[in-house]
Design the sequence.
């Protein structure tokens, strides 16, 4: 029952993101693939930048606690699995937004909450996007 409720919650959260931006569904990324991340900030400005999946983001993040490695990986940083995990377009969009955002508010973050919600289905159901450890 708990698993069913969790699944329904993720589906509900991810579908509320459709009004806030573009949810690409579960779009897998390949190792070292260049991806144009797209996100919006609290002033409704659309931003974009190219990042390389599975690699570190260039420069310094707005929040020193942000792990810049493993860009596009669903979940926090490179994780305990040394970078293995699901790599998707929506997770890349969220990582790029979080790189420039100084807050970590999850689904309710003023800058990156919509990207977080768009990546929720990828995080929960993106098993087909799993890459091996680096």
Sequence:
């Amino acid at each position: 029952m708990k698993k069913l409720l969790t699944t329904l919650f993720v589906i509900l959260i991810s579908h509320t993101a459709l009004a806030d931006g573009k949810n690409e569904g579960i779009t897998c990324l390949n190792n070292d693939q260049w991806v144009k991340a797209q996100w919006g900030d609290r002033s409704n400005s659309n931003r974009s930048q190219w990042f390389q999946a599975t690699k570190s983001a260039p420069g310094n993040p707005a929040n020193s606690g942000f792990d810049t490695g493993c860009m596009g990986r669903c979940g926090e940083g490179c994780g305990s699995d040394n970078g293995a995990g699901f790599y998707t377009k929506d997770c890349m969009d969220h990582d790029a937004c979080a790189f420039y955002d100084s807050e970590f508010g999850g689904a309710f973050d003023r800058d990156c909450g919509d990207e977080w919600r768009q990546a929720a289905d990828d995080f929960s159901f993106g098993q087909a996007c799993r890459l091996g450890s680096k």
Remarks:
- Helices lie at 2-16, 89-100, 113-125.
